[in-house]
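Write out this protein's structure.
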Amino acid sequence: MKERRTLVVLPSLKAVALDDGRVVLTEKFLEGMRQYAERWDGPIAAVIEPVATASNNLDNVIVPKAALPFELAVAPFDDPRLPGMLSQAAVVLGGTDYRLNHMAAWCRKAGAAYVVNTEYSLTTRLQIVATETANPLRRWRRGVWERSQERCNRRSVALAAGVQCNGVPTYAAYRDLNQNTHLYFDTRTSTDMLIEETPLHNRLAELLRGNPIRLAFSGRLIAMKGVDHLPKLAVELRRLGMPFTLSIYGGGDLDEKLRIEIASHDLWGSIRMQGSVHFKTQLMPTLQDEVDLFVCPHRQGDPSCTYLETLACGVPIVGYDNEAWAGLLQLADVGRSAPLNDPVALARTVAGLNADRELLAKLSLRAREFAEQHTFEPTFERRIEHLRQCAGLTNETALAAT
């Protein structure tokens, strides 16, 4: 009997299927699938749930299905055809979507290795609910549902052949349930995008001359990212008498509210709303050349790729001590934290680093050093090797099949 070698990915994102055979996907997802196609020794397939309207992701692209380096099915996870699509899978990589609660048990019966990819812990999901849901009854109901789903997640993790945890929060939550649990940090930063040592030392030399500190935030301008705390942070920095500039990159629902609050506090001399910029060609070079410290008021433990991508620029982070940032700080001294939902404490933490420029420079060097260990290529290779191990496809097996 021929050995199964197909890797099937069941991502959490959704796709728009156009009538002309093209699909709307994110560039980040496509890059990941390209890496699978290059590195996996067998066929690649993806099943993505359909949606009528594309999300507001900044990296959405429209591509012909026929041009993709993998087989793509746009179908609901509860589609009765899904078992047939997975019948030849060696490994199925899926998330914690409630429609996949049965998948670990199904794959075990079908002889496929199911690997769960996790991102948001229960604590983080409840924090997101609290941030996004104003109605107390609806917030309570959503909380009950999340706790019920967590029990399903834990059963899936325990049954699965392995678990891949994006960030420390779910790794801490699930590693005792499955001995084959792998920790990684999601990032779009390839090795060639790391800040080089000479530009970094030049920037740090400017920092040590005592010029006003240059702060930045990038990401979606939405409540769960805590962007509404940025004007409050700026007000406190001004009260402390600290010269600074704060550049805000991104777009979202709170854009107009931010602008109104900035104007009401007369902060336009210090805060610059830069809008959405291209990640690779604009944001990363700007962070490397023009930013001394990143401010990250995330109200919850979303294991955002912002952390690793910022550190890759040699820029330390001051952030709220959510699960993701607190967990990362346990592994590397690359910034500082402040209590959740306390923009005054966050500002005072920034001011403390501003007053100790030598420490800030050391944190910058440590940031680059840590990020270098977790750039896109080695991170992806470690994840693929973990998938091979989960399926019993060792490197020797892979070579024999070529």
